[in-house]
Design brief:
It contains 5 helices and no strands. It has about 375 residues and is mostly helical. One of its GO terms (biological process) is cilium organization.
Length: about 375
């Protein structure tokens, strides 16, 4: 759909050729207009902005000066500075309004003309480029340019919206700042009232404080005299105690010297005894060392003998164990033979009992049996 017919191309070419000529004509007419008006407006704006900057510097200087003025001696000067701050704030507010009004009523004509001229030349370039494209009966590049322009306009709209929001925020912040300044001034005025009230209270109580001070001074003087007398009495008592302590110290020193002499003599005596004990200790140590050596040798001999006795005991124990096993074997053999004898005796006794029974009973039964058999044979 980006192709055009030859007739459509011709019509568009005629229209755009005429448009380009008119744009060039407008550019030649507007090139030298508004220079004097622009200079007048720029001078007015510069003057208002200079006044605005001076007032801002003055306000900052007065604020710093107010923070440095403290104490009752600077009260009058502080009040003058506060009044000057109020006046400067009012002038600064009026100057800000005037600057806004001047900027609103006097736009940047020179800048606007440059912007219009640039936009016009850009439009001419787009039109000429379209004429070149239409030689091929196409306008795709022109279409892309228009779409890009729409997108740029949308971005510009967003930027303007953001700028408007920022201006609103700046206005709100400025309003809050002014309100805080007014609140600080009110607080300062209230503080001034409190200071005046305190000064009045101070003046009223000054007389009472003077009387109280005189009374306290007289009372302190009397107490000081009483304390001095008491101190003199205590000083006398302490001097007596010091003399007694000095006498006591002298006696203690004499006793200490005697004790020291006695202790030195005792120390020498103990040192001599210690030397004697060292000699005796060495002799006893040597003697005990010799005895320990002899005992050690004897212990070794006893250990050797103990090992021999232990070996002998082990041999005897092994021999006893062997004999015990032999006796147990013999005992078991005797027990076996005894059991065999008992079994033979029991068997013999059993046979003997059977024989006795046969001899007494069985034989008779055998005879009766034979007789019965004979009777049966006879009957038959």
């Amino acid at each position: 759909m980006n192709k055009l017919t030859a007739l459509e191309t011709f019509k568009i070419d005629v229209v755009f050729q005429e448009t380009i000529q008119k744009l060039y004509f407008l550019d030649s007419l507007k090139s030298n207009m508004g220079s004097e008006m622009s200079e007048m407006m720029s001078e007015e704006i510069s003057r208002v902005m200079t006044e605005q900057r001076n007032l801002e510097k003055k306000y900052a200087r007065l604020g710093q000066q107010r923070s440095q003025l403290k104490g009752l001696q600077n009260k009058e000067k502080l009040q003058e500075v506060i009044e000057e701050i109020k006046e400067t704030a009012r002038e600064l507010k009026d100057s800000t309004r005037a600057l806004c009004r001047v900027l609103k009523d006097n736009p940047d004509i020179n800048g606007n003309q440059i912007k219009i001229r640039n936009d016009r030349m850009e439009l001419i370039a787009i039109a000429e480029d379209l004429l070149v494209q239409m030689k091929d009966l196409s306008y795709q590049k022109f279409k892309d340019t228009i779409i890009e322009g729409h997108e740029n306009n949308e971005k510009l709209g967003k930027l303007r919206k953001e700028e408007k929001e920022l201006q609103t925020k700046i206005k709100n912040i400025t309003t809050e700042h002014n309100e805080k300044d007014e609140e600080s001034l009110l607080e300062f005025e209230e503080t001034e009232k409190e200071i005046k009230l305190l000064e009045k209270t101070l003046n009223d109580s000054k007389t009472d404080s003077d009387l109280l001070l005189k009374y306290l001074q007289d009372k302190a003087d009397g107490e000081e005299i009483c304390q001095l007398r008491g101190f003199e009495q205590k000083e006398t008592v302490l001097e007596d105690e010091i003399r007694e302590l000095e006498d006591k110290i002298n006696r203690e020193k004499q006793v200490s010297d005697k004790i020291k002499t006695f202790l030195l003599a005792k120390k020498q005596e103990l040192e001599n005894e210690a030397e004697e004990w060292d000699v005796k200790n060495k002799q006893e140590t040597d003697k005990l060392t010799q005895e320990i050596k002899e005992l050690e040798d004897k212990r070794k001999e006893d250990e050797e003998r103990h090992r021999e006795v232990q070996a002998q005991l082990e041999n005897e124990s092994a021999e006893l164990e062997r004999k015990k096993k032999e006796e147990e074997a013999q005992q078991r053999e005797l027990e076996r033979k005894k059991q065999e004898n008992i079994a033979r005796d029991n068997a013999a006794r059993y046979l003997q009992d059977k024989w006795i029974w046969w001899d007494k009973v069985g034989r008779g039964l055998s005879k009766k049996g034979r007789k019965g058999k004979k009777k049966k044979k006879k009957k038959s």
